[in-house]
Write a structure and sequence with these properties.
The chain is α/β, with parallel strands linked by helices. It is 48% helix and 10% strand. The protein binds glutathione. This is Glutathione S-transferase.
C-alpha cells in the first residue's frame, strides 16, 4: 500500500510534509484531521498518544510520529534525491542542521503565543505576559534563522529540500501572530515568497484550508481518519 500522511488543520506544521511528498513524487495518500475537533477524540490517542499531527502510516502499516522521524523516513526512500542530498555529503549535514533548528528552537519559540491564544479561561494579564515573552522568543529565533540563510535560492542547494518544507510549515506563524520586525528579515521573506509560489506548497496549503486542489498526481486520494484508527491504531491500555 501507499504510505498515508495524517496532516492537521488549521495552520498545522504538517503541511510541510504534504509539500515534501509532492516534491518526492512517489505515490502516497492523505488523511485530513481537524486538530480542534476530531483530534481531541480519545480514539486519536491510538495513533498518537501525545495528540498531535503529523502521523505517518508507512507502506508496511507501521505508525510513525514526530516530524523529524517522518522526514527521515522520506529521506531514506528518496533514491532520486529530489528532497534530500547524497548521504554523508556536506549538503546533507547542512540540511539536517537546518531541519533540527526549525523543528526545535524555531518552532518552540511560538509556544507562549499559542498558549495565550488557546487559553481555555481567558486571563488578560497572563495572556499579555505570554505574548510579550513569545514575541521576544520568536523575534530572536527569526534573527538567528536570518543569519543562517545563505545567498542561494533555497536553504540548501538550488532546489527545495526537506529543510525548506519544514520551514514553510511554520514560517507563516509569525504573520498569524502579527509579529513583524523593522528589518523584515529580507532573506527569510524572499525564501518564503519563493516557497509560497511553489505548486507543491500551494497544493498543500489549499488542502489544509479545504479548497479544491490538484497536485502533481502522486497523491492517490484521502482516507478517513476512523478507518486508519481501526486498521492501524494501537489498543489503548485501560486502567
Ligand atoms: N514534536 C512534534 C510536534 C508536533 C506538533 O506540535 N503538532 C501540532 C500542530 S503544528 C499539534 O498537533 N498540536 C496539538 C494541538 O494543536 O492541540 C513534531 O515535531 O511532530
Amino acid at each position: 500500500m501507499e504510505p498515508i500522511l495524517i496532516y492537521g488543520y488549521p495552520s498545522g506544521s504538517s503541511m510541510a510534509l504534504v509539500a515534501a511528498l509532492e516534491w518526492l513524487g512517489q505515490p502516497y495518500r492523505l488523511c485530513r484531521v481537524d486538530m480542534l475537533g476530531e483530534m481531541r477524540d480519545p480514539a486519536y490517542r491510538r495513533l498518537n498518544p501525545r495528540v498531535e499531527t503529523p502521523v505517518l502510516i508507512t507502506d508496511d502499516g507501521r505508525v510513525v510520529t514526530e516530524t523529524m522521524a517522518i522526514a527521515l523516513w522520506l529521506e531514506a526512500r528518496d533514491d532520486a534525491r529530489r528532497i534530500s542530498f547524497a548521504p554523508r555529503s556536506a549538503q546533507t549535514d547542512r540540511m539536517h542542521q537546518l531541519m533540527g533548528f526549525v523543528n526545535t528552537g524555531f518552532t518552540g519559540a511560538f509556544t507562549s503565543l499559542w498558549a495565550a491564544l488557546e487559553m481555555q479561561t481567558p486571563d488578560p494579564a497572563r495572556q499579555a505576559l505570554l505574548r510579550d515573552i513569545g514575541k521576544d522568543q520568536v523575534t530572536e529565533r527569526h534573527d538567528r534563522l536570518e543569519e543562517m540563510i545563505g545567498p542561494g535560492p533555497y536553504l540548501v542547494g538550488d532546489r527545495p529540500s526537506l529543510a525548506d518544507a519544514l520551514l514553510i510549515g511554520v514560517a507563516r506563524w509569525a504573520a498569524y501572530h502579527q509579529i513583524t520586525e523593522a528589518s523584515g528579515w529580507p532573506r527569510l521573506t524572499a525564501l518564503r515568497k519563493r516557497l509560497e509560489d511553489d505548486p507543491a506548497v500551494q497544493y498543500a496549503t489549499a488542502l489544509e484550508t479545504g479548497e479544491p486542489a490538484t497536485g502533481n498526481g502522486a497523491c492517490r486520494g484521502h482516507v478517513a481518519l476512523q478507518d486508519l484508527i481501526t486498521r492501524f491504531g494501537a489498543q489503548l491500555e485501560t486502567a
